[in-house]
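Dear U.,

For the methods section draft, I wanted the exact inputs and outputs in one place so we can describe them consistently. I've listed the two proteins in the order they'll appear in the manuscript figures. Please don't edit the token lines directly; just add comments below if something needs changing.

First protein:
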Amino acid sequence: MSYWTIRRRDVLTGYVFILPQLAGVALFVLLPVGMAIWYSLNDWNVFTGQQTFVGAANYAALADDPQLPKVLLATTLFSGGVVVLNIALGLLIAVLLNRKFRGVTFFRTLFFSPVVVSVVAWTLVWGFLLQDNGAINGLFGGGPNWLQHGDTAMISVIFTQVVRSVGVNMVLFLAALQGVPGELYEAARIDGASSRSVFGRITLPLISPTILLTVIVTIVGALQSFAQIAVLTAGGPELSTTVLVYNVFQQAFKFNDIGYGSTLALMLLSFVMVLTLLQWQLRRKWVFYEE
């Protein structure tokens, strides 16, 4: 009997097809995470190249870092604001544009167009617009330097991030809305259901898988937002916009503390994993197709 049976050939073919993906995960995910864990256990002098094993010292330093509470607060405010506004506005715009009217294609393109613009170019333009003598204050007849005050700086970075990225969620929600069977709406109208009831009892449940996807993607994207902070505020003023991912950059490459920067990076990775797993577990309670 031949060793290479049809089943074994099929299994081998499957592994050959997924090998590039497995290699990519190993090279660009598992290897960097493993290196970050190793660096977090060492004190690395990047100038001399000398590494000293310090064990859990970098992890213990998290509890003694006076800046960490402010960084975590800024991360929570930024990520929370971006996620809530992005999901809410994306769904609202999708609902408004899920209709047939003159110019609908133009408005869909208008809201999606910022997505294809370079992040740095987009942020630089908004940096000029938000100055005390910029176009925003000129439009309203005066105002503060939005990027130099703690409260307005956070609002500004959230606003620029949402305006640029809301088009992605709009497209996803629009595709989901167009996939809802029209006969369900017809049946609801015949039964005399109000628009609010139709949206809450038909539309939202049927697009709940897309809502789950957009929430996960938006949270991960918000926690990884770096260029907007770096270009607009550089974490200031007074750490008010220093989110965790920007603090990782500062510690590792500005202060040359690779070990502590790697520790913060692993903390960020842990937050992303916990939030993603939590949402994945809760999906059974509100996603329509789950039993």
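Second protein (the one for the lower panel):
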Amino acid sequence: MHHHGGSGTGLPGAVPTALVLLAAAGGYLLAVRRVRRRNPARGWSTRRSASFLTGLALLAVALLPPTAPAAHSDFRAHMAQHMLIGMYAPPALVLAAPVTLLLRALPPRRARRVTAVLHSRPARLAAHPAVALALSTGTLGLLYFTPLYDTAMAHPAGHRLMNAHFLASGCLFAHAVAGPDPAPARPGVRARLVCLGVAIAAHALISQALYGGFFVDIHAPVEQVRQGAEIMYYGGDIAELLLAAALVATWRPERRPTAALPAPDVRKAVRS
């Protein structure tokens, strides 16, 4: 088992994390205020603001005591933290449309720069559901079936990098599948549903392997690993069903151009 009493997860280490989360909430709300002042008629959805704050609240539960200190010594707490950071908070943050809010809050010149970055080749590649799937789900096998997990947990910086990866890859996958923000390279609904189905299957296989102890390289009590696998199995299913519901809720059918009706024959009309 891992014990890191000086890893910065106590009250002194929680203060910077809380300040960052509060700064993120304040920045979002200030942007909402600017957007509403700039265009009062259009405004900004209160549900999106609530979604962003909900995502930050989930991150607070995962990154502050008592969850954060327990995650260093208990695999079950680690898995709960993983679920909150990588699978529950990202959809809430993404459904708040932070990029759209940023584009509307920025001056036109800066907004065009952000748009250019979004249309760049690296951004288009990273926003593809297959790439996001590989980063979010594909790396779990590398984490739990190699010494990488124990190596990361042995150092505070490694644990922070692992949590940052969970959050970034989770947000990327949620954005690629069901994000309301603009995504120039996003494929159709069928391709996104396929990627989501692969993610569900992969999470089920990894959690079952953890429960059965197949290829597992985690230095923790067997009972903790099994209970952590159960958290991953059931918690992952719920999170992915919520993401599927978000995809259905944000999906808009493509409008196909209607075929033009043939022009009436004027000569036949005159003869009749």
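Candidate sentences for the figure legend, describing the second protein: Confidence is low (pLDDT under 50) at residues 1-7, 257-261, 265-272. Residues 222-250 form the longest helix (29 residues).

Thanks,
Y.
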